Amino acid sequence: MSDTVVVGLDVGGTSTRAAALSLDGARLGEGRAGGGNPTSHGADRAAAELLAALRAALAGIDPTRVRAGVIGLAGAGRLLADPNGRDAFDSAWAEAGLRCPYAVHGDALVAYASGTAAPDGTVLIAGTGAIAAQVRDLRLDRVADGHGWLLGDAGSGFWLGREAVRRLLTGLDRAQAPGDLGRRVLAELTGATAVDDRPRATVDAVVQAVTRRPPVELARLAPLVVSSARDGEPTAVALIAEAAAALAQSVSRIRPPGAADPVVLGGGLLTGDTPLAGAVRAELAGRWPDAPLLSAGDGAAAAAWLAARDLPEVTDPAALHARLVPPPA
Amino acid sequence: MSDTVVVGLDVGGTSTRAAALSLDGARLGEGRAGGGNPTSHGADRAAAELLAALRAALAGIDPTRVRAGVIGLAGAGRLLADPNGRDAFDSAWAEAGLRCPYAVHGDALVAYASGTAAPDGTVLIAGTGAIAAQVRDLRLDRVADGHGWLLGDAGSGFWLGREAVRRLLTGLDRAQAPGDLGRRVLAELTGATAVDDRPRATVDAVVQAVTRRPPVELARLAPLVVSSARDGEPTAVALIAEAAAALAQSVSRIRPPGAADPVVLGGGLLTGDTPLAGAVRAELAGRWPDAPLLSAGDGAAAAAWLAARDLPEVTDPAALHARLVPPPA
């Protein structure tokens, strides 16, 4: 049995996860730290979180056993283009005692690899934002959306939250009483539990509550839409259907008709048994009936697998994937 | 002939205009100053611009002849609710030598009154933002949209600019070469005169160029859409049609079917012979075939008329409107 250890890191906006695995699939260590996206947090802060997660994962492990590593993060291209960012990550890597090289991949590729070992396929991610990408030979190829909340992210958590507020406002303009979702959005934004009999005063209060905060915080309303849709609330059900159609539309921009390779669904809105995941699966199954629809799983383990598959002793990457990357719960 | 003078002010985000008129329609003075919206500029700055415009309009006029005044501005309700804002405007009014009272009205009411003397009707304004309002007895009644760029302003200049960028980005995602409008948007945002053969690099450059500036500056792309639509560019023509439908939809939320009272079109995108004005007129004529469709005109004169009509010697406000408010050029 190999003494070789591989490490993988999944660096997200709100948390950083690290995993150290042996090639027979033993999970030797795990680490977790705060958000480390260098684009949103700065390279030094990101590198500090990376180091904290790495140290926790490597506790009790001789670091010279580590032969390969992969860091998955959003904006990987920007990190690699920035000498300061690359230096900060190099230093954290060395401070953790690691002497092997590491590679940096986009978080979308790591999400894809957490769902399948197939070299070619599609990944669709919907969380706060939304992005779809084609994967060719385990590299990101064409990309759709990921344009950010101002210009895109159609079908994302931000989009769901913004559209829920828009429906509330247009209903108030029509002097209609808000439905259940509208009342929940109103309570969340303004604390109001009853609707003022002056609709314009309510409109102004809602607009002011939203514009007081960073726009991206509209994504915090997405769970209200999801839970209302579970209850069958009509506006929420309609928004989920629209979001699913928008996400499938993004996939259509880059995925050929009739493709039979897998589609991996990732991000908080598409992993697990959510109404949006169900609606997206139905949209995708209608357009690509022969494609396996898979769920993203453990990103840190998938990053470790991506690191391991280039080692000379790895002859069957698919079998290694089955050992290293646990199927989604 | 009356010795009475009335003054009107139209306070906008980019300029403040003042007019001093006699009741027989003689234009005694005009003034212009910088943007004075208290919401965006602060009450003190707004009051300083107001005073500058007032002084210019009143040059050579005995201020004791001024018997009434109206200030029209966006966010009038917020000004009146804020004691500091009200104090700043009171002080400017007194510093200009005026002893008569003044009233503050929303810019939408002033735009309406610049197009008609009819006490009841609808005003639709599309500039950087977009708002529609019902007018009842020359007071603003129900309002639709005006929710700001993040949540609304459907069919506005901001909306046109953002949608033009969105069309460019989704086309690049599909690896399609941009059309004429897309190339103009790309050149305006990035300076690129040729499209990179790596669409994702172009996408990133566009997203970065937009997100470096305040979002509302997307409205600066609206003139490209308007001029491309004049040339028959298909994407621009489609965007203008969508914007017109969205603006008519906002009106539909508040204006009863079959209403025959006038609709006044205001704002930079709807005054004059613009493609959007033409498309909006067609939409409105289809929905309200009996309604006169009018164009907003001189806001400062309209504000002066709103001030004058409450004077005891004014017995025929419509005739006074014909004397005081010049028809749009």
UniProtKB/TrEMBL annotation, chains A, B:
Question: What is the protein's species of origin?
Answer: Micromonospora chalcea
**The protein's name:** ATPase
Matching entries from InterPro entries are given as: ATPase_BadF, ATPase_NBD, Euk-type_GlcNAc_Kinase
- Look up the domain of life of the source: Bacteria
Q: Which residues form the ATPase BadF/BadG/BcrA/BcrD type domain?
A: 7-270
- Which SUPFAM superfamilies does the annotation name? Actin-like ATPase domain
